[in-house]
Amino acid sequence: MEFKALSLQGVIEIIPRVFEDERGFFFESYNEKVFKENGIADTFVQDNQSFSLKNVVRGLHYQNAPYAQAKLVRVISGQVLDVIVDIRPDSATYGQHLKVILDAQKQNMLYVPAGFAHGFTALEDTVFVYKCTNLYNKASESGIYWADETLDIDWEVENPIVSEKDRILPRFN
Ligand SMILES: Cc1cn([C@H]2C[C@H](O)[C@@H](COP(=O)(O)OP(=O)(O)O[C@H]3O[C@H](C)C(=O)[C@H](O)[C@H]3O)O2)c(=O)[nH]c1=O
Questions:
Q1: Which end of the chain is more exposed for a tag (fewer CB within 10 A), N or C?
Q2: What domain range is 89 assigned to?
Q3: 153 found inside a domain
Q4: How far apart are the CA of 151 and the centre of ligand 1, in A?
């Protein structure tokens, strides 16, 4: 398993060791000991799964404290352009975003610390799964309009499919 620190503080890409043989493949998608040894000491308390048709954009979402969530996100099948925005008020990179392609070929994962808004474009029909460090709390849900002009994110999609809820998210302050 390879752990790569990315340009926004605390964000880590994880590339698992995939064991292939004549039957197919195997890899460990989470290992508490190995993750702790590489700086991810969180306890994950909820697993989520979603399916998105190609050209769906979900996000940008986050939960407010005390229900803020760190996430370990990956793709079971398909491919996404994963997008995270640093919304930590005291961060030197506040308002900056990072994009990472996650797909079921590379089997790469992204550790997104609490304090980030998260979203993705489904570049193909995609099954997306992720572990969270806090439970879902509807009253704490918040988000940022995906096409916010200030954030100026290229989601690399024409005519995206966006939920009504996401279409009315507030602009970034
Ligand atoms: C997130 C969540 C949702 N729900 C219910 C609430 C809605 O009735 C339904 C669909 O929820 P939503 O439209 O918010 O699903 P997504 O747009 O995929 O939201 C997620 O997508 C982006 C990319 C994220 O990073 C967040 O983890 C999460 O907000 O599932 C639950 O019951 N539990 C949950 O943990």
A1: C
A2: 43-167
A3: yes
A4: 22
**Which tens digit of pLDDT belongs to each residue from 88-101?**
999 999 999 999 99
Number of domains into which the chain is organized: 1
Distance CA 20, CA 13 (A): 21
Cα of 49 from ligand 1 centre, angstroms: 9
Is residue 61 in contact with ligand 1, taking CB distance under 6 Å? yes
Q: Pick the closest to residue 89 from 63, 111, 115 (CA basis).
A: 115
Q: Summarize pLDDT for 42-81 with one digit per residue, the tens.
A: 999 999 999 999 999 999 999 999 999 999 999 999 999 9
Is residue 141 in a domain? yes
Please work out whether the CB of residue 163 comes within 6 Å of at least one atom of ligand 1.
Answer: yes
What is the whole-number distance in angstroms between the Cα of residue 36 and the centre of ligand 1? 27
CA distance 115 to 63: 9
